[in-house]
Amino acid sequence: LALFGLWQSVFVYITGLFSIPASSISNVTSKLAAEGKGVGGLILINLAIGGISGLAYVLLQPYLIPSSANLDPTAVELAVIMLLIYYLLTSSNAVARGRTPTVVGVSAITFQLVRLGFLLYAFFVLKMTILGVVLAYTLGYLSQIAVNMGFVRANFSLDRRSTVEGLKAALVLSVAYVQY
After folding, report:
1. CB atoms within 10 A of CB 151
2. How many CA atoms lie within 13 Å of 111's alpha carbon, on the beta-carbon side?
3. What is the predicted pLDDT for the residue at 27?
4. How many angstroms separate the first and last alpha carbons of the chain?
5. What's the 3-state SS for 114-141?
6. Which of 81, 94, 120, 127 is such that its CA lies 20 to 30 A from the CA of 177?
7. Distance in angstroms (rounded) separating the CA atoms of residues 31 and 87
8. Hey, how many other C-beta atoms are within 10 angstroms of the C-beta on 69?
9. Are 17 and 163 in contact (CB under 8 A)?
């Protein structure tokens, strides 16, 4: 039960608190990709912000999860990799949603199959706990990214005008995410 609580804390921090910028940039990237505009700049900025969020997670994690509750410190620390991959996932989902929405469903199924398959292997064969969950999510996200990017034709150019337009819209959207 304590391990489940630890995982829930890590997952909520990764996909909630530390991914707010990814959500707002993702919505704008989807719109611009649907319009055929260059989204390469927004994707790079999203990844840079993901790096900053990852650094913030690493620095704040000891204060967010008390050492007495941290039953698997290595897994909690390695969850930063999952956070960085999550930022890339939000970009690839955004592009897929804007250009070929059907791919999002196929990639989501791929994510579930890879995650479940590796999770069963990690738990029953490798005898992992939280680290197995972190790795399962990471591999699932990577498979989802591969499907998204493998089937989508989008404009990945570094269009300055689209990037500035997207950042302005994302800033407005970030306020709505912070409210929740």
Report:
1. 14
2. 17
3. 87
4. 27
5. HHHHHHHHHHHCCCCCHHHHHHHHHHHH
6. 81
7. 17
8. 11
9. no
- Give CA–CA dist 99/95, Å, rounded: 6
* DSSP state for residue 18 in the 8-state scheme: G
Alpha-carbon Rg of the chain, whole angstroms?
17
Q: What residues of the chain score a pLDDT lower than 50?
A: none
Q: Could you tell me if 90 and 46 are in contact, meaning their C-beta atoms sit under 8 angstroms apart?
A: yes
Joined tokens for residue 146: 């591969």
Residue at token pair 């706990």: 129
Structure-block tokens of residue 63:
């204060």
Residue type, 47: L
CA dihedral sign, ordered 148, 92, 179, 14: positive
What does the pLDDT read at residue 1?
55
What does the pLDDT read at residue 180? 56
Question: Position 137: which residue type?
Answer: Y
d(CA 126, CA 33): 41
* Amino acid identity for residue 166 in this structure: G
Q: What is the pTM of this model?
A: 0.84
What are the distances in angstroms from CA 55 to CA 14, 17, 77, 142? Answer: 12, 13, 11, 21
| Amino acid identity at 149 | M
